[in-house]
Amino acid sequence: MIGKAKECAGLYLLNGPNNPKEQVQAARSVSSPIPPALSNNNSAIMLWHYRLGHPNFQYLKKLFPTLFDNIKPEILQCEVCQLSKHVRGNYPIQGYKTSHPFAIIHSDIWGPSRVNNISGAWWFISFIDDHTRITWIYLMKEKSEAGAIFKNFNSMIQTQFQTKIKVFRTDNAKDYFNSLPGKYLMDQGIVHQSSCVDTTQQNGVTERKNKHLLEVARSIMFTTNVPKHFWGEAVLTATYLINRMPSRVFKFQTPCQAILCSYPDTQIISSLPLKVFGCTAFVHIHQHHRSKLDPKAIKCLFLGYSPTKKGYKCYSPITRKFYTSMDVTFFENQSYYPKTSIQGENSAIQECSFWLDTTLLTLQFFHMKLS
Question: Per the database record, which ranges form the Integrase catalytic domain (predicted)?
Fold first, then answer.
């Protein structure tokens, strides 16, 4: 029994000794099955802690301030509370920032997607420079490709920027350890730092970057109703755009500007005039690819910017071919897929049906001609 009290206006008034010392003695005098280890100055506090269902010791201090004379709530410990209420630790943002690019490269593997990209990719791997936050994305059909992609990326950094990666920071996924031999990292002088098991917060740079990339990718796909099987092209385009967007972290400087400040002579950072992702694009057909009576352009879907050519990347669902060209006319206010379909899925089926019907008619024509 905790005590006796009278009800007054819906509340119970517990009468007790007014003298603080008497309060302490009364609290300690009540019998309770407290372990012998607690039979000390803290026993009364622990007794009420057990009685009230293991509340926070700060709350107990509010209820019984006199019990906490010369006792700080922070030093009190309860094993039962640890077993029943244990939570994960805090992961404050690290104040340290590298002084130059490529001292630390953050990396993560995302996937698999529920829908494979039109290129057959199910995954993508990201590489983020700690100093400038410039990002590289590579699509993958298999997770086992991660090791080979990192080796190519490392060679590109050494060749284009005449520097070496010092630290390669990833999560604890087996993909890196299985596909990227430790001997290669040792030979390159690269320190591989991985997060603890099930602790993605320690790889927060890539986790936040992937979240940002997918938010932008979804936005540009929803805007023009682009089908889901172009998600990889949307992520690549989102990377291209984010690398060219100012950031408050860098005093509204873009990652591309930040990297060019350190390496002004690099030739791999180029920019094209931006266009609306997923809009209608007409790609010019050069004369040696058409006859005099054929159309001089082909209607395509704009899918971003080529990483290896100075041109726009377009795709024709009719011919099922990619076209990279600068000779493109854009209808930026016109989506290739109508807004009546759900992310273009219905329209994609209609385009495929039209292509099949056209093929069948052509085959029938040649069959009749041969007959």
Answer: 97-263
